Amino acid sequence: MKRAIQSFVMTLFAGLALAGAAQAAGPKDASSGAKTDRLTDLMVELVPMGKIFEMLAKDNPKWPVQDKPEAVTPVQLSCLRAELSNTGYRRAKRKDVAEYVAENPSRIDAEVKLLEGGAAALMGRLMMAGAEGERTGVKMSEQEVLAGATPEQLASFMAFMTAPDHEALRKLSGIGNAFSTSKSASENEQSGEAAGENLATQVMLRAMGECKVSMEALFN
User: Fold this and answer.
1) Separation of alpha carbons 58 and 51, rounded Å
2) Cβ-contact 36, 94 below 8 angstroms
3) Alpha-carbon Rg of the chain, whole angstroms?
4) How far, in Å, CA of 159 to CA of 181, rounded?
5) For residue 50, what are the CA distances in angstroms to 90, 93, 143, 167, 203?
6) Confidence grade of residue 19 (pLDDT, cut at 50, 70, 90)
7) Which residues contact 136 (CB under 8 A, 6 or more apart)?
8) Does residue 121 sit in helix, strand or coil?
9) Closest by Cα among 35, 34, 212 to 111
10) Which of 36, 37, 171, 195 is the most exposed place for a label (fewest CB within 10 A)?
11) What digits encode the pLDDT tens for the residues 136-192?
12) Of all residues in the chain, what percent carry a pLDDT higher than 90?
């Protein structure tokens, strides 16, 4: 089952890379603010979407509107690329995390501990490898990516991916319940691709809203 989860994660962000090529108030007390910042850092490490978008942007100065660059002004293009950078993605994700922390204060310490135990680092490593392999055509195996991971780190990773208690945390990350131990490898692969594309699309749409980019301008 461990290999199935690892393969699913790499497929998930291969889907995100393909799709990419195509406000709530925060907690008021200092303790909650610190927890929000820490959980945000872990979410960004777990799902390194900003880094993947920066990788795609580096390849093309017109990204993400390379197919229709005339649809946006230079100011809008600059705004989009900033919103889709690692810094911009973290800023947007922190709003979601602040909501989550406010609604689930009793869960945060344990969830931060889980992610710090290896889930965030290993998930991020697999996702970056999946996206890089899709971009370059040079793919790595799950074993190569996770070489050197400790049993404790792998246990943290497995718990995040499969434990029912962490369903809300998976939803916050954007992965949700796309992976299932009851599905076949092929079904999980398809689910991973769809989840990656949906995740990328949601972030893109959010950036377009922030930058006042018209959907009609891009798709008509």
Assistant:
1) 10
2) yes
3) 17
4) 12
5) 8, 10, 25, 23, 10
6) very low
7) none
8) helix
9) 35
10) 171
11) 888 878 888 888 899 999 999 999 988 999 999 999 998 887 776 766 777 767 777
12) 51
- At 220 the pLDDT is 64
Q: What is the pTM of this model?
A: 0.81
Asked whether the beta carbons of 139 and 133 are under 8 A apart, the reply is: yes
HSE-CB of 74 using CA atoms within 13 angstroms = 0
Helices (H), the chain: 2-21, 30-46, 49-59, 74-83, 86-103, 108-114, 120-136, 142-145, 151-162, 167-173, 185-210, 215-219
Other CB atoms closer than 10 Å to residue 95's CB: what's the count? 16
DSSP 27: P
Classify residue 201 as left (phi > 0), alpha (psi -120 to 50) or beta. Answer: alpha
Cα 134 to its chain centre, rounded Å, is 16
Instruction: Calculate the CA 102 to chain-centre distance.
Output: 21
Neighbours of 62 (CB within 10 A): 13
**Average pLDDT for 70-77:** 94
Distance CA 88, CA 66 (A): 20
Distance between CA atoms of residues 188 and 195, nearest Å: 10
What tokens were used for 53?
Answer: 């978008």
Q: Per-residue pLDDT tens for 98-152?
A: 999 999 999 999 999 999 999 999 999 988 888 888 888 888 788 888 888 999 9
